[in-house]
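Possible regression after last week's pipeline update?

I re-ran a chain I had predicted before the update to compare outputs. Posting the input and the new output here so someone can diff against the archived version. Not blocking, just want to make sure nothing changed silently.
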Amino acid sequence: IKNQIIEDKYYGPNTSLAKNMPLLLNNVDEGIVRIRLLELVDEVPHSLKSIFVSESTSKLLDREDLANKPFLEVYEKSTNNKIISMRRTISAIIPDDYHCNLLGVKRGTAHLWMKTTAFIEDRVPVATSYTIINGNLFDFVVDLQLKK
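New output (post-update):
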């Protein structure tokens, strides 16, 4: 997997984005950074991911590493913090023209939308991502283990 960084944008502490993600912020004077990645598998667009982190966390993340490694691996290496849990929500969507063009998919086709929040110890959230996954390449499978 290779990641092409298509946006790396700072949103100040007074923006609506920063105000809507207060749990990611380490202090009230801090903003949010959105890093948008086009994830490629064998040069084919796999997904489009928007990762939101605090300004201070963003400063620690090596952008060159982000181009070649998964975000969680880069986060753990850059911050010396271990991700201990994640919360994930998945839905089916039909992306708009902009996202279809980035993913190289036909307009009107169904894909997966995924929201993930990563937590370190004491259930402290450190990153939230929103991902559109190219549904033409993958099936989503869930195994449920049922106990009596």
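Follow-up from reviewer: compared with the archived run. The mean pLDDT is 90. Marking as no regression found.
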